[in-house]
Amino acid sequence: MENLTTKKKNNLALAVGFFLIILVSLVTFYRPTFRKKTPTIPDAVPTETNASSARGIESDELSKKIMTESDLTIIDIRIEGDFNKEHIVNSKNISASGLANALPSLDKERTYVIVSDMLSIQDTAYLEKIFRENGFQNYFYLIGGFSAWKSKYNPTLSEGNPASFVDQSKVSYITAEELKKLLDSNSNNVFIIDLRKSGQFSIGHIKNAVNIFLDDLENQTDKIVHGKKIILYDNDGLWAFKGAVRLYDLGIFNVFALSDGLDAWKKKGFEIVK
User: Fold this and answer.
1) Is the pLDDT assigned to residue 204 strictly greater than 60?
2) Which of 30, 137, 214, 248 could tie 195 with a disulfide, CB 3.0–4.6 Å?
3) Yes or no: domain 47-155 corresponds to CATH 3.30.300.30
4) Which CATH code is given to the segment(s) 165-267?
5) Which run of H or of E encompasses 211?
6) Which residues are CB-contacts of 204 (< 8 A; sequence separation ≥ 6)?
7) What is the tens place of the pLDDT at every residue in 53-91?
């Protein structure tokens, strides 16, 4: 009799245990149904951020705009150091924090494309807000930012890094003595650019040189005479190298950097004018 009672207790314990296993399994299976759903990003962000997504353009589309639209302005809002290192040709560097102050002075009839590293939802909402508040209609954002532009092998302007094999491959050099011989034999086929600041240029420069400061070179290519050998120089050759890289990136290839600079030119006693 005692064995029978013990057996019933064991069976009951097994039944209860089996029931609990089934119950836990059912709760686990249906748990997602009972859980409150988290809203997706589009439902959770303000309306203006949703609108900005329609203003995103791919790199290929921006490339077409550059080729076909004369009223296009590209604004790069990355930090100044990154912009100077490399950027889309003819783009303007305005910080995100400074853009609100800059917008009132910009032409509202032009088309604007914003370039960044990567815009967050908060960034696009802010930019959308300040563009609308200033009455702009034609503004877009480059999807994927500058890195997406580069990944498609679109043209960029490099600062010119002497340690870069790629940048070194863009530059041809000429020495002071070689330039002197070239000028003595056929000076009409040479266009010389002094990349130093105007104050240094006025103190003394190579005869017939034109002064275009290095940082202005990108925006003053209209001053360059094409069809001639273009010689770039500064004091020691570094800026000449940088200038040659930039002209190469701008599609101007018949360029030579004075490797030993104006300092070597002076030491050799070659002509300097004021």
Assistant:
1) yes
2) 214
3) no
4) 3.40.250.10
5) strand 210-211
6) 266, 272, 273, 274
7) 679 999 999 999 999 999 999 999 999 999 999 999 999
